[in-house]
């Protein structure tokens, strides 16, 4: 009787850990070839990330884009005018209240055996490309992509310590951020931003 | 007598040690003079990674590379017009820990021909799958052809 209870007592956290590791292990590794194939969500993302402007002045569009990114708190890290390229980043804290709550809940449910790492720091980056759409270059297209890299804090699984600094990457797919950027850009160049 | 026997054993042990040490020294890696010479496999990969198209405008070619990478969902990380260099990356979407990085160089072969070379890396391993490069060049051809279309139209 006592023995079975002991088994149950040690079994519960082990089962919890097993379930959690199984859940996190569910994601199959991606084949490199898959990353070069066109998926159905690519045109949708393209529409969200792209606007067309009726202007012959690509230089003006590019410098206005840099100004808008600065207004949004980004630092321009790289620029190449001949190909219409800009890259800007900003670093912020990635701490979220919900993650701390979940960390404590998991810690209690696993009887103190599992401490999930929480997100600590993030780098938000924007990569912007402008290009002429016709030979006379009277129409320009601006495409921007936002993404972020997140660094995690430390954690623990049973007796094994997880050191901090593990990172993961994420595309930002919130349409509102893109709308906000293009609204500011069209205001800056006094032009209407046309959807493609 | 006893002492000399000990001397002999000590000498033997010393010799043995010296021999093993010298033997280990002998087993030093042989310098391979052809380490940097191209192997057949390398040549094959290079031919997979290289493609030429009939193009005159270098700037349009670089912009075409950028457009094709963006169409494939890549983030442009670096671009250099002077060197004809574009570097881009893409994260595997459900599993954010995997990343593919690609560098494309554009070189003018003749006045009529432009040569493109792509190197792709998956996490930190070079990609040798021909399908990957075929997919990329198909997208590149589409982007270059589309931009040519738009230059032809008024």
Note the main attributes of this structure.
heterodimer, A: 196 residues, alpha+beta, TATA-Binding Protein, seven-stranded antiparallel sheet, three-stranded antiparallel sheet, 10 strands, 38% helix, 31% strand, elongated, B: 154 residues, six-stranded antiparallel sheet, 6 strands, disordered C terminus
Largest beta-sheet characterization of chain A: 7 strands, antiparallel
Which sequence of SSEs, written as H and E, runs from N to C of chain A?
HHEHEEHEEEEEEHE
- Percent in helix of chain B: 40-55%
Outline the biggest β-sheet of chain B.
6 strands, antiparallel
Measured by DSSP, the beta-strand proportion of chain A falls in 25-35%
Instruction: State the shape of chain A.
Output: elongated
Low-pLDDT sequence parts of chain B: 150-154
What do you see in this structure?
The complex is a heterodimer of chains A (196) and B (154). Chain A has a single domain (41-195), classed as TATA-Binding Protein (2-Layer Sandwich), CATH 3.30.310. Chain A has five helices and ten strands; from the N terminus they run H-H-E-H-E-E-H-E-E-E-E-E-E-H-E. Chain A has helices at residues 2-24, 41-49, 58-71, 97-109, 175-189, and strands at 50-53, 75-80, 85-93, 114-115, 119-132, 140-152, 155-157, 160-162, 167-171, 194-195. In chain A, strands 1, 2, 3, 5, 6, 9 and 10 form a seven-stranded antiparallel beta sheet that branches. A three-stranded antiparallel beta sheet of chain A has the order 4-7-8. In chain A, a hairpin with a 7-residue loop joins strand 5 (119-132) and strand 6. The longest helix of chain A is centred in the first third of the chain and has 23 residues, at 2-24. Chain A starts with a helix and ends with a strand. Chain B has 154 residues and is of the alpha+beta class. Chain B has one domain: Kinase associated domain 1, KA1 (TATA-Binding Protein). Chain B has four helices and six strands, in the order H-H-E-H-E-E-E-E-E-H. Chain B has helices spanning 2-26, 40-49, 58-71, 130-152, and strands at 50-54, 75-80, 85-91, 99-108, 113-122, 125-126. In chain B, strands 1, 2, 3, 4, 5 and 6 form a six-stranded antiparallel beta sheet that branches. In chain B, helix 3 (58-71) crosses helix 4 (130-152). Chain B is elongated, with a radius of gyration of 28 Å. Chain B starts with a helix and ends with a helix. The chains are: A alpha+beta (196), B alpha+beta (154). At the A-B interface, helix 2, strand 5, strand 6 and strand 9 of A face helix 3, strand 2 and helix 4 of B.
């Amino acid at each position: 009787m006592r023995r079975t209870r002991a088994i149950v007592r040690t079994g519960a956290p082990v089962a919890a850990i097993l379930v959690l590791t199984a859940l996190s292990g569910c994601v199959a590794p991606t084949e490199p070839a898959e990353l070069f194939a066109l998926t159905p969500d690519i045109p949708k993302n393209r529409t969200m990330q792209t606007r067309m402007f009726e202007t012959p002045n690509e230089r003006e569009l590019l410098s206005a884009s840099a100004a808008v990114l600065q207004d949004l708190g980004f630092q321009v890290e790289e620029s190449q005018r001949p190909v219409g390229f800009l890259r800007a980043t900003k670093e912020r804290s990635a701490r979220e209240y919900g993650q701390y709550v979940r960390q404590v809940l998991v810690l209690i449910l696993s009887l103190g055996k599992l401490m999930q790492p929480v997100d600590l720091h993030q780098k938000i980056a924007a990569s912007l490309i402008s290009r002429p759409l016709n030979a006379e270059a009277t129409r320009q297209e601006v495409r921007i992509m936002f993404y972020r890299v997140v660094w995690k804090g430390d954690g623990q699984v049973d007796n094994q310590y997880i050191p901090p600094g593990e990172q993961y990457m994420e595309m930002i797919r919130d349409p509102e951020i893109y709308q906000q950027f293009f609204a500011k850009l069209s205001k800056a160049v006094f032009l209407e931003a046309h959807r493609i | 007598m006893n002492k000399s026997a000990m001397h002999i054993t000590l000498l033997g042990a010393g010799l043995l040690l010296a021999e093993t040490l010298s033997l280990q020294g002998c087993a030093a890696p042989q310098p391979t003079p052809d380490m940097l010479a191209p192997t057949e496999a390398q040549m094959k990969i290079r031919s997979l990674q290289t493609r030429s198209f009939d193009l005159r405008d270098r700037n349009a070619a670089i912009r075409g590379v950028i457009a094709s990478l963006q169409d494939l969902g890549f983030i442009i990380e670096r671009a250099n017009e002077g060197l004809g260099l574009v570097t881009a990356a893409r994260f595997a979407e459900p599993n954010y820990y995997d990343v593919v990085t690609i560098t494309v160089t554009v070189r003018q072969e003749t006045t009529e021909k432009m040569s493109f070379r792509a190197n792709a890396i998956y996490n930190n391993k070079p990609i040798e799958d021909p399908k990957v490069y075929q997919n990329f060049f198909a997208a590149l051809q589409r982007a270059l052809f589309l931009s040519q279309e738009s230059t032809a139209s008024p």
